[in-house]
Amino acid sequence: MAGPTPAHVAIDRIPGGVTTPLGFRTAAIACGIKASGLDLALLVADAPASAAALFTTNLVKAAPVLLSQQHLRSSRGVARAIVVNSGCANACTGEQGLAVAQASAAEVARLLECRSQEVLVASTGVIGVALDIEKLRRGLARLVPELRDDRHHDAALAIMTTDRGPKECAVRVTLPGGTFLVGGMAKGAGMIAPNMATMLAFVTTDVRVPSSVLREALTDAARTTFNAITVDGDTSTNDTLFVLASGASGQEVREVGDPTYPLFLEGLREVCRALALEIVRGAEGATKVVSLEVSGAPSDEDARTVARVVANSPLVKTAVHGGDPNWGRLLAAMGRAGVPFDPDRSRVAIGHVVMFDRGVPFDDRAQEAAAHLAGAEISVQLDLGGPGSGRATLYTCDLSAEYVRINADYRT
Amino acid sequence: MAGPTPAHVAIDRIPGGVTTPLGFRTAAIACGIKASGLDLALLVADAPASAAALFTTNLVKAAPVLLSQQHLRSSRGVARAIVVNSGCANACTGEQGLAVAQASAAEVARLLECRSQEVLVASTGVIGVALDIEKLRRGLARLVPELRDDRHHDAALAIMTTDRGPKECAVRVTLPGGTFLVGGMAKGAGMIAPNMATMLAFVTTDVRVPSSVLREALTDAARTTFNAITVDGDTSTNDTLFVLASGASGQEVREVGDPTYPLFLEGLREVCRALALEIVRGAEGATKVVSLEVSGAPSDEDARTVARVVANSPLVKTAVHGGDPNWGRLLAAMGRAGVPFDPDRSRVAIGHVVMFDRGVPFDDRAQEAAAHLAGAEISVQLDLGGPGSGRATLYTCDLSAEYVRINADYRT
Question: Under DSSP, is residue B145 helix (H, G, I), strand (E, B) or coil?
Fold first, then answer.
């Protein structure tokens, strides 16, 4: 591939969020959907932006998901704004819920003087409770005059539910002929599983890029980031990953074959990776982040299947929580994933300490592995021993009593 | 079907366990595999008995599972004894583990003067730790003189690991021409999932029945009992359900077409159901038993898939634990099971209180549903709304902070 040489390019993390890229403004307020705190945010592009999104694969889709899918189709990938509330998921709310989502988009369109289909919608919070359109209307009227290009942190706070804190990041991509920026924010703390989860993420960039190319890059970036994390295997009705591209930097990616495309993709991936790992790190009750590598599988898809089963095993997650190098539970979880392999050719390592190798356990290394598990960043390697060289990496967290407490009491 | 009329037959629960049916003796001792307490039991049939078993579907099978499978094949379904230890699963222990299992069967054969292939073996406990054959040999020598026909309770105690208490039951089947008995014991507290789990169960009967018919009845009985329970979705390397038939009652079931077969099957199922429900009731950290009925699925298998995903959802299980009628989590879990259905035709009921019906939530009934959830026996009905009338019932429990504590500290 011809392109800029490494000497001229760089991808650097910088402080910031969704209003760090040029051409975006945001504001957030407390409009009374939550009992207290910021619960409504509006992200606006100064001019029509290219837009793409990935949505939950759950069969039960919330009203904002159904509406945003419809709007992206009818606008052919152009958006001016995203309105997002926390405290109420507007899911399983039937025709009425869809009407509320439509009315909120229409209200934003009226206030910004754009078309309704250029407004995207997201909600997160309790399922099955009606979203109050009057609260939204009053809130939106107060929000629009407050829109600023430095309010990214307020927006990141407003989208939180049980999150321990806001999740934001930004990167600067330096090209030979200039720079462009990618920024993002996310929420999500439980119900996180591959293929989208109870997770909302909003990514902005000031590169100019057609929505078809934006969509392709987003799908690629999500594969190893947002779609490679799991907290509890539960996927939500509301998961959405949005990306808007303003073009305000003057830099452009015309097509996938462009020399700048790989750099754009890498910048986008870096923002997605940082936000996805923040979600795992901040997961409900989590005290440890686990990077789980599976190799030697018949295919990459098989490796993902094994990784998912192991990552979601309550016995594996509680062992990690307890700092117990219980490789037997890892092997037992591998064995029930439905992917064929020979246990007598497989290998289990915790923090690169091989605990089980081709039928032979090495329990004398338990202390060394336990020392690794005492840390907050855990790595586990599972080799199925072939045949095949399929591999996958998933990120997950431990399962704590705190997770149970949070989720047993969420509504009450 | 021609057969005894209901007036002449009865299936009654009676106190008892594995030595309640005629022709069986057992004994249990502490041989030092566990730090303290009974950890070795021997169940012996006075004469060669018909035998059948179901084993874990996990790809990783422990040495006792591999050996018992082999022995059942080579003996063509005849057994004299089952030796079982707790405290060590003898799993992932390679060639050496298999040699220990073989040596223990050989030792029992020597002591009882039978063939080695007529001895079945089971182990439960920590994975990946070597089982000490010398402890077993010394223990077995002490056990054999202790065999009695009334020691079923000791055996039920000896097979426990993290179980809260022993699990036993017995039934008397009354036919026009006489009676026969079925008895059983089980252990299992976590790592329980359909298609066998970390669960050992031993069922005896004094009916005379060929092993092929015994196997068919066992498979049928397990389908709606042991294979319809799940605690955490984890299946184990050691799961085994054994059944031995002594024929000592004088009653006989020759083939599946016999008029007595349905009664035998029902007696067997009753013992299996009672033991399986005891496992769920006594599951690690469990405070509630949940009966989960799924209907309106494309097929029974699809209904089972949906039930399994919902039953294993940490968010569903924690909501039940918290007494929260969070039907949204139920619907969200249904939606990610991969079985097609229309949420706008589906229905969710908690304790027969309909909370969501064809797109419409009924949150005003939350108090009524919460009152049901405050009990210890929970029932949940999920109707996918067709097309199709596939149905399945699974039994599971809630997920508590206590489960996490038990499993985070199991080895240490």
Answer: helix
Structure tokens at B261: 């077969």
pLDDT tens-digit profile of B243-269? 999 999 999 999 999 999 999 999 999
Residue A352 backbone phi and psi in degrees, to 5? 65, 10
**CB spacing of A318 vs B127 below 8 angstroms:** no
> May I ask the CATH architecture of the domain A289-408?
Roll (3.10)
Whole-number Å distance between alpha carbons of A301 and A294: 11
Measured distance CA(A13)–CA(A45) in Å, rounded: 22
Q: Is B198 a catalytic residue?
A: yes
Q: Please report where in the chains the tokens 């079923």 appear, as a residue.
A: B152
Catalytic residue among B20, B93, B198, B260: B198
pTM: 0.80
The fold for domain B6-281 equals: L-amino peptidase D-ALA esterase/amidase (3.60.70)
Active-site option among A93, A124, A198, A305? A198
Q: With CB atoms and an 8 Å threshold, state whether A359 touches B94.
A: yes
pLDDT digits (tens, 9 = 90+) for B187-227: 986 665 544 446 899 999 999 999 999 999 999 999 889 98
B410 and A322: CB-CB below 8 Å?
yes
> What is the homologous superfamily of the domain A7-281 according to CATH?
L-amino peptidase D-ALA esterase/amidase (3.60.70.12)
All structural domains of chain A with their residue ranges: 7-281, 289-408
For an interface test with A, give the residue of B318, B362, B397, B398 to mutate (most A CBs within 10 A): B318
Q: Same fold for the domain at B6-281 and the one at B289-408?
A: no
- In sequence order, which residues have a C-beta less than 8 Å from that of residue B73 and are 6 or more positions away? none
